[in-house]
Here is the input.
Amino acid sequence: MDKKQIIDHAAETAKAAQIRDDICARSVLVGLKEILTDMPEEMITAALSLAGGTGGASGSCGAYCCGLLAVGLHYNAPLEDERANPALKQKGAAKFSEYRSRFMKEMGTILCPELHQKIFGRSYILSDPVQHEEFLAMPGHNVKCAEVVGTAARIAAEMILEDED
Here is the structure.
C-alpha cells in the first residue's frame, strides 16, 4: 500500500470500530494501531476513559484526545531522554500544536458539546444521565461520530507518516 492507502485504511478502521463499538476515543487508537504497531494494548484499553468528552465530562473530544496521544507516542521523547536533553520536549510540543491546529481547521472545535452542536444540532452533556440516554438512543449517532473519529485518525496518521519515505 502507498502512504495514502495506509492513511485511508487507518481512518476507515477507526470509523468501523466507532460504528461497531460506539466508543470514539478507543476507536481512533484501534485505527492508528494499523500504523503504530508498537502501540501498547493497554493504551487502547485505557482510552475508554477519554470517551464522551474526556471521561463523559463533555470536555475535549475523546477522538481528538486519542489522536493527540498517538501523535505523542510517535513524536515525544522517552522521559529519560527528555530529562537528559530538555530541548527534546519541543519536538513533541510542536507536533501536538500542529495536530490541534489541523483538527481545529477541519472541525472548528476540539470540544465534544460543540461538535455535537455542529453534527446533531444540539449539545449533549454526557455526564447527565438523561441527556446521555437521549444521545445513545438517537439513531445513527455512532455513524455521525464516526466522521469525527475518522478525521482524528486521518490527521494523526498523516502526521505520523509524513516523515517516512
Summary: The chain has nine helices and no strands. Residues 65 and 161 are 19 Å apart (CA to CA).
